[in-house]
Amino acid sequence: MISGKTRVCGLMGYPVAHSMSPFIQGKLAEAAGDDIAYVTFPVKPGSVGEAVRGAEALGICGMNVTVPHKKAVIPFLVSLDPGAEKVGAVNTLVPQENGGYKGYNTDVIGLRRAFGQYGIDTEGRDVMIIGAGGGARAAAFVCAEGKASHIYIMNRSVEKGVALAEDVNKSMEMSLCSGHALDDVSGLPGSGMIAVQATSVGLSPDIDSSPVEDEGILGRADTVFDLIYTPAETKFMRLAKERGAKAYNGLWMLVWQAVSAYELWTGHSVDEETARRVYDEVLLKINEN
User: Do both 160 and 121 map to the same domain?
Assistant: First the structure.
């Protein structure tokens, strides 16, 4: 029940109507017994500064940030968590005692914990990341911090892939990443790679699409992770499994990044049993749709 004591958290992005975050955060608040309402705020590009200042003026006790604002929001924050500063993107805002918001990146935390959930170990492994947007950025840093042997960023726009690779190399102070055209397999290892699909291609309702279908790419991976979670099995995952690879979706990443944000806002720890229950409820809701 909404009351005069209810605190408000929210999500800013454009668009945001499709987001599962209100459902997840509502379940976390319910489990903890917190009087918190989580709502979506459709913020058009160019209005991010006004949105951050408005959230502070209204006393919003926590915000998530999604596309296309994860980098654009940074100039309007009073500080950055070192992890978010390294990645150069923010998806969680936490109010500060002296005013303003501090930026965090719980996408990185969520992906790292999801990898752990599935037993995906990047140490000493070659990794192929498909895409060069916010999800790819988080994946690149998780794999770099996980001591991957080399990270190949594959993107339709080679320039964007190269730029992301250079950002990661500069931040990590090593030559670990390289950018490539999506269809250029000439420099890739022949097999045994981990592939991370970080584009929106294949997201429901576009379930009959995959960013890559070529054997030359799919045949190189023995493990694939698709950041998409609707549908539960994307065409990319299905094609990889047909070639003998293990395939996982992004639902655990979504849940763990939400849990991390909730913990930052409330100071409450969320145990694994609660996270598992929320995961099951989200999966059920996705399947109902």
Answer: yes
| Cα 198 from Cα 209, distance rounded (Å) | 14
Residues 35-48 pLDDT 10s: 999 999 999 999 99
* Max CA distance (Å), the chain: 62
Do 22 and 73 meet the contact criterion of CB atoms below 8 Å apart? no
Contact by Cβ (8 Å): 228, 253 = no
70 classed as catalytic: yes
- Number of structural domains (the chain) is 2
Torsion of Cα atoms, 251 then 256 then 262 then 264, to 10°: -150
Return the closest-CA partner of residue 264 out of 95, 53, 143, 112. Answer: 95
Contact (CB, 8 A) for 115 and 90: no
Domain range for residue 272?
7-104+252-288
pLDDT digits (tens, 9 = 90+) for 178-212: 999 998 888 899 899 999 999 999 998 889 999 99
Same-domain status, 13 and 72: yes
What is d(CA 201, CA 10) in angstroms, rounded to the nearest whole number? Answer: 26
Same domain for 240 and 138, yes or no, is: yes
Query: What was the pLDDT predicted at 36?
Result: 96
Name the amino acid, one letter, at 218.
L
Return d(Cα 91, Cα 235) in angstroms, integer: 27
CA atoms within 13 A on the CB side of 274: 20
**pTM reported for the whole predicted model:** 0.93
- The tokens for 106 are 């719980």
Q: What distance in Å separates the CA atoms of residue 19 and residue 103, rounded to the nearest whole number?
A: 20
* Phi-psi category of residue 267: left, alpha or beta, with phi > 0 → left and psi -120 to 50 → alpha: left
Instruction: Spot the catalytic one: 27, 70, 86, 235.
Output: 70
Return d(Cα 79, Cα 92) in angstroms, integer: 12
Dihedral angle over CA of 274, 278, 283, 289, nearest 10: 160
Residue 115 belongs to domain with CATH number = 3.40.50.720
